[in-house]
Structures are given as C-alpha cells and as structure tokens.
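Example with several molecule types.
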Amino acid sequence: MPETPRRTHRLSGSRYGNRPTMKDVAARAGVGLKTVSRVVNGEPGVTPETERRVQESIEALGFRRNDSARVLRKGRTASVGLVLEDLADPFYGPLSRAVEEVARAHGALLINGSSAEDADREQELVLALCARRVDGLVVIPAGDDHRYLEPELRAGVATVFVDRPAGRIDADVVVSDNYGGARDGVAHLIAHGHRRIGFIGDMPGIHTASERLRGYRAAMEDAGIPVEDAWMSLGVTDPERVRRATEEMLSRPDPVTAVFTGNNRVTVTVIRVLSERSRPVALVGFDDIELADLLRPGLTVVAQDSAALGRTAAERLFRQLDGTLLAPERIELPTKLITRGSGELPPAD
Amino acid sequence: MPETPRRTHRLSGSRYGNRPTMKDVAARAGVGLKTVSRVVNGEPGVTPETERRVQESIEALGFRRNDSARVLRKGRTASVGLVLEDLADPFYGPLSRAVEEVARAHGALLINGSSAEDADREQELVLALCARRVDGLVVIPAGDDHRYLEPELRAGVATVFVDRPAGRIDADVVVSDNYGGARDGVAHLIAHGHRRIGFIGDMPGIHTASERLRGYRAAMEDAGIPVEDAWMSLGVTDPERVRRATEEMLSRPDPVTAVFTGNNRVTVTVIRVLSERSRPVALVGFDDIELADLLRPGLTVVAQDSAALGRTAAERLFRQLDGTLLAPERIELPTKLITRGSGELPPAD
DNA sequence: TAGAGCCTGGACAACGTTGTCAGGCTCAGG
DNA sequence: CCTGAGCCTGACAACGTTGTCCAGGCTCTA
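Resulting structure tokens for the full complex:
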C-alpha cells in the first residue's frame, strides 16, 4: 500500500498529531496523569472538585482520548469489520446497516470494505482489518479458501461468514435457503402451467448461484420435466450478455414461456428485455427489488431478508465474543415467495 | 457505551490477544526485534538469508503486525471516517462506495457509521472516529452546529462535509445544486403546460429540502404563477402522511395537475398513490430511482450523482491531507434532468 | 489523643511498534 | 597487517494510555 511520505502542514509549524494528551490535561489541571484517566473513564475515586478542574482542562484544550493507545493497553478495539462485495449494491446496504446496529448496541464501531468480488482483495481487506485488531469479522466471501484466517481464529478473533459459506475452514455461517427458495420459485411457475422454464444465473462457482441452480433442477425434476441445456445460462451477469441470453431462449422454435432469474442484477435486465416484447413471458426473480410492486405486471420474487442475514450474523459474532458460543454452526434463513403478477402469468403457447 | 466486562474464553487458557508479537518472531528466528520490523515493513538492509528466516518465523507463528501500536508510534492511522444518515438508503450506497474507492487508492481504510438523521448520534459517532484518530472525516451532517469539531480541525484532521453544509464552522463542503435542480424540474413541468403544481418535501430545516423548496418557488415565480399554500406539503416524509398529503392536493376543487417530489422516499410513495388513480398526473422527482425507466409512464427525475459527490469529497479530503489544499471551499455539483415520461404528461384539466 | 481504616491521588511499568544510533563485521586498499 | 568505509544488526527510548500499587491525609472511634 502506498504511503504518503511528504506532508506539508495545514497549520503553522505544529506537527500533525500534536494534540493534547492526558499529560497536558493533567499539567494544566495540576493533577496527576492517572487522575485524568479516571475522569475520562468515569472511574470512581475522584473528588467532585478535582473532577471539575479536570473537565475544565479537557474542554479548554479540546482533548480527545487516543484510542490507539487505549487499544494497545486493553487488547480490545471495540470495532468489528465487515467485508462485502459492493456497498453500492442495494442488497448489501440493509445488511451492512443491520450489522452496524448490532455493533452499536454492543458499543462497537464498524469498519467495512468492498471486495469487489475478488478473492485477493478480500484477503487483503480481511488481513488489514486483523492488523487493526478488530474484535470480530463478518465476511461475505469472494474467495473459496479461507485458511489464511486460521491464525486469527486461533487467536480468538470472532468470525462469521454470511451469504456464502467459508472455504476450507470451520466457522460460523449464516446463509439464506438458496436451494429451497429457488425450488419454490420454479415450482410456482410450474404450478402455473409452465414446462419450458429458463434459468439465468451467475457462475456456478459462486455458492449462492450453484444452490439456486440446484433448486431449479430439483423443481423441474420433481415435476418430471427434463431440462434442456439451452434453457440454462450460467455465469452470465453483465447486462449485454444477459440480454442476449434471454433473447436466445425466447427465439427458439420451442421458446421458454417463463424465466427464473438467479439474482437481482440479472432480474432487472430481463425485465427490460421482456418489457420490449409483446408476447407475455412469466418471470420469477431471486432477491426482491424496490418498486417491484409498481411494475406492470408486478414482479414476483423469492425474497431474502438481507437485514436479517446481517443481524443474525452480527448477533452470533457478539455471542462468540461473550464466550457464550461453542461450536461453529451453519444457520439457514428462510426465503419468502412474494407473488405480484409476473410469476402468475400463464404460458403463452 | 456499554462495555462487556465478563468474558469467558473461546480457547483453552490463553488470553485473548495472546498473539505473537515481533518479539516472538524475533526470538524464534534468532534475530533482533528491529530486524523483524524491517522485514515486515520492507525496509532495506536485511540479508536475504536473514529475511528468509524471519519470513519463515512469521508464517509459522501466524504473526500479523499490530496496527494499533504502529499508529501510536507513527501518528497516522491510514483510515478515514464516513458518517452518513443511513447506509441502507440507496442514495448513500454508491456515495459510500465512492469514498471507499478513493480511500483505497490512498491506502486507507474506511470506517463508517449511520447517524440515523440524529444530531446527537452524529456527534457521538464523529467523536468516536476522532478518538480513533482517523486521518480524515467525510460527514453528511444531521445536525446544524459543528463547532464541536473545532479542536479536531485545529489538530489537522481533514474534514469535508457532503450533501449539506456544515453548521457554524468553516469547512469544505460538497453539495448538489439542489436549488437549480428543483427549479429546472419544476420549470420542466411548467413548460409542459402545468400551472397548479404541488410540492411535497422534507422539513425546511434540512438544508437540501429548503433549497429544493426555494427552487420550486423560483420556477413558479419566473413563470408568474402565484403559489398557493395548499400546494405545498413540508416536513412530511413517512409514507402514510405523504399519501394523505398527495390525496388532498388531488382532491381539491382546483386540483394540482402535477407534483414535484423533494426526495426519493417521497417520490416512491407518490408513485403508488398516482398509480391507483385513473386521471393522469404529471410527476417529477428529485433523486433518481432504480427501475425508474420500467415504470409506466417512466419516471422523470432530477438526478444527482451520489457517487460523484462521494468521490469529489474524498478526493478533496486527501488533498487536504497532502497539504495541497488551502482555504475551505464550497463545491456544487450539477444535477441532471432525466425525462422518461411522467414529467411530460400534459395537464388533465 | 492515638490508632485504624478509608478515600484520594500519583509514580511506575507495560502494551507492540518504529526511529535513532551505535557496534560489529567484511572487505578493499595501503 | 592495519585502517577505514560500508553494510547489517540490535539495544533502547518513545508513542499515550491503563492497571497496580503505595503514600499521605482525612475521619471516626475508643
């Protein structure tokens, strides 16, 4: 990481960090160093009069305790790290916020970083957080090998993986029921008379994607419908390619009459494609989308509760820190089918 | 803040934080402490052979440098703080991500917190970040008095306010052209023949809200249209009340034929109300919304570029840290009118 | 009035790292 | 063989805080 060595000063001559310390406060108040510490931390054993003098001194100097030093001494940082894929994705906003709320309730701050779906960057971020000695880590994995975390786990850094399981280590995991959700969603389409159903999802290397694909296959098999390869498009996620994939499925001599989309980004693009066509095509998407109810037809989705994922993970994290928790566990949260119209369209054969 | 005093241990007897230090690494490798430091920091002056031994030792022990100690020594934390209103709001996701990207380019981590639109909580968060000695702060203000930051500014903590100006202190500010954007949006409605135009926005105490209201009034005045009080609904933001306010405007003997909404949350609710009515009502909203193009009619908006706000602020922050920057400045980013249909509906008189 | 016990305050070490500085080694040149 | 230059290496202090421990002064009682 690039350092910034040179630094001209914004203020006259004073060094950066030339901030008042407890020593300065003590000198000004005419008390000992430790007395200031006691006042700052609300410890007992200080006369009201002394306390007043110290407080006045703190105000006057604009003193703020240096938590780096405190952490060094105490061993706990009262901060937790969150590594996710992309904060700008509407799926992660509520998740992050939920983690933050739980952290706040435990008096901890949240440091977060986006891995941009890159395993190396994930590791770099996680290790940077560990170097800062966060008390705990919530990780939405990008990579599939997390053995690099072994020393941290051994050292007692609380760790919870969310949305996707950890790779090659034994750790707490909180995930949605991707398999069951997808199966239900596809079964819903089948129940409305569809037999030729397309699936557009992410690379099967991604755990959530492969689980959803598995759910799709299971629903089809349950209904005794053989799946044709041409109905599935995997690893396709950028808008242009999703568009092409969708159009191909719809232009076959035997076109699909319904589509199941594997995540919110894919869903959005497919909606665009379908909205340009006259023949109605049924659609169920994985992940809810804002305004889904305002589309015509309304969008039927398999919704996962991203805030609940974050909350559950964070609560588990702090239970690890309490020592309340023993063995790593895998928690699966249910998904919910929300019908709004697009999934209930009959096949246009 | 509540501390968690008790703590049972996850691992056998070892204290938490009983992690290897440079001293341990040094002992195992049979070298001096400082030599380890040199290897860890890539400083020159270490024999390849010595370096190898040290590296081996680091691997074996799972050593990670303790950045708290490092920070204490060096004075810089290589982290910046971001305080915003609510990470779960789609407006802030891209903003936060943009700040993170710039920080990353400068080798810094991002710590963020949500103020939940509460001035006390904002201050609490900001001071917590200062206690951690973040190098810089990006703040989306909830409160309107930031004099509590004076000691930090004096101490050289880089600070940039975004989206709304700072209160009672002199600091860098990056905002959208709320006034101009609203004026353009309303003028757009007027240009399409509307004269009775409603405005639904947040409390005028919020800077962005009052600026947008000012823009509304200006556009009306420019067109020589006297504004009636009943056309304006201020400080109304929760869905139920927005709904009522909208319905009242539309049910008057002289109903409004168009509505200008002051932020994305209001817009969404108004869309819902309008979609239930048969008579078409024109709508222009402040802030873009995902899928706005898929609605029928498409939603016309005054869009601000939240990522650009974040990027601009963060870049300015690091220029402060470079010492490149001198006087605090106010930067205004333009907004963009995106026409998609709802704003071009003619008045249904 | 003296002694016991309590309350307040402060001196000191320690946390893990980095900057400074000096010592020891090697090697070339005289 | 000696000297000096140059390269590695490590001892030590310092960063700002908190935990431990002790001293001094006070109050209260016998």
